[in-house]
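W.,

You were right to be curious about this one. When I first looked at the sequence I had no strong expectations either way, so I just let the prediction run and decided to look at it fresh. Below is the sequence, 333 residues in total, followed by the output.
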Amino acid sequence: MNMRVGTMPHGKRNLITDVPGVRVGHCTVDDEACHTGVTVVLPPPANPFLHKLTAASQVFNGYGKTLGLVQVDELGTLETPIALTNTLNVGKVHDALVSYMVELCARDGVSLTSVNPVVCECNDSRVSDIARRPVGEKEVRAAIASASEDFAQGAVGAGRGTTCYGMKGGVGSSSRLMEIDGQTFTLGVLVQSNYGASADFRAACLPEGLAESDQGSIILIVATDLPLSSRQLKRVLRRTSVGMARLGSYIGHGSGEIAVGFTTAQPEARGGSFLAQTVLREAQMNIPFRAAGECAEEAILQSMWHAAPDTARDGSRIPSLREYLTEKEESEK
């Protein structure tokens, strides 16, 4: 099965890190009871608190425990890395990001008295003993330390214990190149997939009974170097729902569907009373709209394609998309 979708060209790695300066790191927890982790998206520059990036969020269905979105939407800026983890670990990961940012600012000669970490989550309790909450500061620091332009996809980090359309889900990513007035810009999406009913999956005919209802959650992180306002970014974030819908999701009642995005163009300079900002004309917004829809759809497929089969806590088997399609292809020969 070809995981590539759409018509737009993808970046060098076909990852969110094709946006210059963006890095991603994982820390995976795998022991007898816990199969979970944390994934961190690090935006440039080295200290985003000192040079805040234009940002936005979009809640499609709010069955989620994400932290930090209120200030992102009020001020339109991002000032920390974005962390993804499981539902009951949000508080511990938030605390770890506070410690990290306090140290980062102290290094740069700034006394930090307020900071707005963004932490998103999916519930991985089908696979992991979520009540044990094994992801803390050590794991967050390890994820940050491992961050790079090349990173694993599938059942790693925050995607270790997730399921998608009744099959194994995880972390997936994709990117698209956008040419505007002779300049090339990049938009990338990273997802933590944990949602969808198997009967609704449109990319392949899945066995019945894998997942009866659309619940669980999906987090979509959008990064771009295209100069956009916070309002324009929110418009782009809304188009990630196109990718979800193309694969069959109707954004169910019990699923937290949340997107967070930022642009690396024109970090906010410190000092002064006024900001000068260049933004894309509204008439050109169809270009990032299409890029966001294509990237979201492909990132979800990548999250499933790269994930190996797994076993749920109740002993039931969770197949992988790659395994199922390979077996189906061989049976049809």
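Here's what jumped out at me. The longest strand covers residues 183-193. And, maybe more interesting for your project: The chain has one domain: 16-270+280-331.

Coffee later to discuss?

I.
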